[in-house]
Amino acid sequence: RSAPAEDVVRAARDADAAGFIAGFPSGYATWVGDRGAQCSGGQRQRIAIARALVRRPGVLLLDEPTSALDSQAEEAVQASIERILADGSRRTTLIIAHRLSTIQSADVIFVVEAGRIVERGTHAQLADLADGLYRKLALAQGHAPRAP
């Protein structure tokens, strides 16, 4: 199913993909993948996010959106996620991630262990739990949570 061009461009801009798409040989009409333009992991991820956004979902699920990316690509994808979260839409966005940098600005973070929610709160609230799992994960990933 095709979408109006303005919706595609808006979604690409929101996903921080418009710049590199404009550099493709045929712009938005370029085939990507094995027989088309080659994309980096970060570019593929941002295209996937744009494709999801163009559908205007009521719920957007991002499962490990930065897991296989280098730090530069992760930063670009993270910026697009931040833009999506702040776009004022009435969409619910669920982000599943092991990297705390991907979720620390979320309104609510649920920490799951062995299939059960063991902690819930904002980054600041969870980082303040002295014996909390989130705090331990933050320290293991090199984040310096606030002292309790």
TrEMBL record:
GO cellular component, one term: membrane
InterPro entries listed in its UniProt record: ABC_transporter-like_ATP-bd, P-loop_NTPase, Type_1_exporter
Record-annotated membrane-spanning stretches: none
Organism the protein comes from: Cryptomonas curvata
Gene3D superfamilies (UniProt xref): P-loop containing nucleotide triphosphate hydrolases (3.40.50.300)
A Pfam short name: ABC_tran
GO molecular function: ATP binding; ATP hydrolysis activity; ATPase-coupled transmembrane transporter activity
Domain ABC transporter: 29-67
Name of the protein: ABC transporter domain-containing protein
